[in-house]
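Fold these two proteins, one after the other.
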Amino acid sequence: MSAETISVSSLAQGIEAEEALAAQLFDTLRDRSRSTLGVTRASFGEGEQMAHDLMSELGDRLGLEKRVDAAGNLYLTLPGRDRSLPAIMTGSHMDTVPDGGNFDGAAGVVAGMCMLARWVRAGRSPVRDITVMAVRAEELSWFPAPYAGSRAAFGLLQANELDECTRPDTGRTLFDHMQAAGFAPERVRAGEKQLDPQRIHCFLELHIEQGPLLVQEKLPVGIVTGIRGNLRYKHCRILGQYAHAGAEPRRSRRDVVMAGAEFVQRLEALWIDLEEQGKDLVCTAGQFFTDAKVHTMTKVPGELRFTMDIRSQDNSLLLEIDRRLRGLAQEISARRNVLIDLGDYTNARPGLIDTALHERLLSCAESLEIPHVAMASGAGHDSAVFSQQGIPTAMVFVRNEHGSHNPDEAMEIADFTQGLRVLIAAVEEIDGQP
């Protein structure tokens, strides 16, 4: 079969070799990055570098072109016959959270490499370049700079992020870690673009689902409708007054825990109301605590701190919620004689999925008779950065037991193979189209 006539039907030839390669790569990644509970591949650390080296070595065996950019992102390319055409790109990140699972991020890079191995094994030459990108530093656990690697690739990482974001286990800055690894953070600081959006035809990312929907629905594959953006409030606090737990009557108390409890209950009521209206929304109070050094069992608490993470595919809804929450804070503050200060927030805008690519992925899954569902991505992904650069972007999710960011990630290789089949079919259809 010629490259020009490759279609979904080519997958009927079997995918056992790619499945075996994937299993081998996942096993090697796990074996080489085991930690106390799970696996640890720290951003700009030994584990992440090991993973990049593993993919680079495979790229060498496959005869792929290789490039490492100023931020350390790795690009492995199967050259197309017409190199003037913008490239098809796929990939994901290789780092993990501390003591995390083996598949978050890595599944997308492994899928891309298995796809290129299939093309090389069959002696097929694509019309346009096909590039797998292994992205650096996606996980916020290591540096509080969202999508550090992919943003650096587009010249979007800010100087203060390089100089002020430190890794908690080393105390060293992102700049220092990037420099020590042999890359060029001064070029990143200057905003030098490592990728030109005009040279990218589309970006497709395969990723494990990090929630329970596919497990609950007993489906191996999800086709993503959008990547939720977020509001993150890192420094919320409530100030009241410490008092004696037995002597202070209710009417004069300035109890911050009671005020905080009411606030988060009202947040949940707002969430339920908007959800019933069909709005896409998830809300989390991730931290909620008094100061154990000051507050005791026999004191009315006088200070409370908390965080909020609010996500939606609709950024206008997120901004509306901020306005409503600040109104709630004022109302509860006045009634309970406390001060609820939500502080500033950061706003990561939603990642828009390209409609045509989304429909193509759905069509490929249907043609291959792979059970699937269209679904939102609650977690953020590097795909969002590509989408925000105007690059047509889409995602495939693969079923994964026990959620993510924990050692118990349990993606079955059979489910991964179904997601891989959808990815391959879509790329084969896209290749060579104007």
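Now the second one:
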Amino acid sequence: MEGILKIEESNIVLKVKTNYDPSKLNLNEWDKYLDCLCGSREYQKEAIKVAIIYMASGEYESINQLAQENYATNTVLQQKYSKEINLIHAIQLPNKLSGVIDLATGSGKSFVLYGIAQILLAIGLVKRVLLLCPSVTIERELRNKFILLASRVDLKEYIPLWCVIKNPRIIDANVTIKSGDICIENIHAVYENTGSSINDSFKNGGSDTLVLNDEIHHAYNVSSDKDIKKWKQFLLGKNNFKYIIGTTGTAYIENEYFTDVLYRYSLRKAIDDGVVKMVEYVAKDEGLDQNAKFQKIYDNHEEFCRMYSAMKPITLIVGKDIKSVSNLCEDFIEFLMRKENINKEVAEGKAIVVTSASKHKKNLALLSRVDEKESKVQWIFSVSMLTEGWDVKNVFQIVPWEDRAFNCTSSWKGIKNTRGIEWSA
């Protein structure tokens, strides 16, 4: 359409210069550590290095300086923002060493987050790390992964001998965050009424702290959740945080790509590289009634079960809110009872609802083993936000039951499972 400027996201990623003073930062001595941590996933190593150089090389005082440096040489940025000041005003966390790493979901953001945290603690740039995320589900998965990584003897062997902190303690905000700690918490726990240790931990400020943020797009976008709304406010608030890095696979505010992305590994690249798999996506069909839609989804699911008999295919059905997915699951259970001639108890074992509602809390525990053959669960009903952080590898079909469940941005409409699949409507 005439008058609309179409810009490739990779063209407005802020480039961090690599010609820094090696006497201030020697990243070469971390090569073996990164090889051990990331294996052959070069994009993870690159993302970690970019973040470390940006924050620890001494070349940058804040994201403002990086943005100005890029604006001076990037004609695409100049085309998008008619004046340098317009770019600066668009930055979400100005006047700090802040930035975002855009990694396709399913490409291993947790390894990148851990690598950044360990290296910056080890070289003494920061004394402690606070890792924030949007939900209890993601918090649990991150903590389990970090505990596993922190216990790996092979990783510790490659940390340079002179380093300050080699054995970070992985904690939550039930205890005060001390030097050498990596505290992992969901954003709902950082406020006074939760009884967490956050206020006590930062009574003297947070200038010695690295704040990592998983799924940072929640903090940047409008939310109906009162605590999510405060996320950005917390980062910019009284604690005087200086070092702030976010990760996401959805780096958009409505249809605008973030202005503070330091590194991008796109979904298309991840698919081309074989890092994530393509999953069947079933679009909304206005021409079918509910029973006919159930039948179509059921037939697809059965086909996957036949094609991948060695695995246990799972179908994810996503609605707009807790009430709608609860009702939808009840209707689907009735459908299963008729279709498979089974009783209600058996059908309820196959289809579960996973939301933040207390009545569904018991189902959260089932997510960690739904991939196993022994699990009866084949059908998961949820709301779109809760698809983040699930460690479910066998999702073969995803069904957006209502459009409004996916209107998170106007540049892409869809959802993603933990293998990093996103779709455009």
